[in-house]
C-alpha cells in the first residue's frame, strides 16, 4: 500500500465533493478516516467511488423554472459508527448540504432524527435570513418546509413541553419548538 496514492485520491474526492458532488459526502467521510493506515479494501472503496463518479458524470440537477423554494430534507441513521456508537446525520437544501457525525450519542432513532432536525433547522433559519436580505425570492415570507421521516421526532418538535421520555435530550436541541412557533420553518 506504500505505492498507492490513497491520501491524494481522498483529497481529490474531497475537493469534488465540496464543489460539485454532495452525493459522495458520506462515502468520502468514511474512507478519509483511514488515511494513516489504509488497507487494500479501503483502496478498493476509493476506486469504486471514482468509478461511480465516472458513471454519473453526465447526470445533473435541474432546477425548475418556477420560483425558488427553500425546502429542506434531513435524515440520520442510528449509532452506525462502530467505534463510538454515534449517529450520522445530514441535510440538504437547494444550495446547502451537510453530512456529519453527531456530537452526542443518541439513545433512540427518534433522538437521532431530532438532533438531525435541529441541525437542519438552524441552517434553514440562516438560509431564510440570507435570502430575505438579498430580496430575490418573494415567497420567502412563508415558512421553510423541512421534511424528515420519523414521526416521533416530528411530534417531539411540535410539542411545546417536554415529556418524561424526552427529558434526557439536551436542552439546546429544543429550540426547534421556538423556531416552529415563530413561523420560520414548518414540518
Write a structural description:
Helix 4 packs across helix 5 (151-158). This protein starts with 5 loop residues before the first helix and ends with a strand. A five-stranded mixed sheet has the order 3-2-1-4-5, sandwiched between helices. The model has no long low-confidence stretch (mean pLDDT 82). A hairpin with a 4-residue loop joins strand 2 and strand 3. The protein is 43% helix and 11% strand. By secondary structure, it is an alpha/beta fold.
Return residue spans where pLDDT drops below 50 for at least 5 consecutive residues.
Answer: none
Shape: flat
CATH topology of the largest domain: Nucleotidyltransferase, domain 5
Strand order of the largest sheet: 3-2-1-4-5
Tally the structural domains: 2
Helices, by number, come to 6
- Structural class given helices, strands, pairing? alpha/beta
Q: Can you tell me the CATH class of the largest domain? A: Alpha Beta
Which quaternary structure do these chains form?
Answer: single chain
* Content of β-strand: 5-15%
Protein name: Secreted RxLR effector protein 161-like
Organism: Punica granatum (Pomegranate)
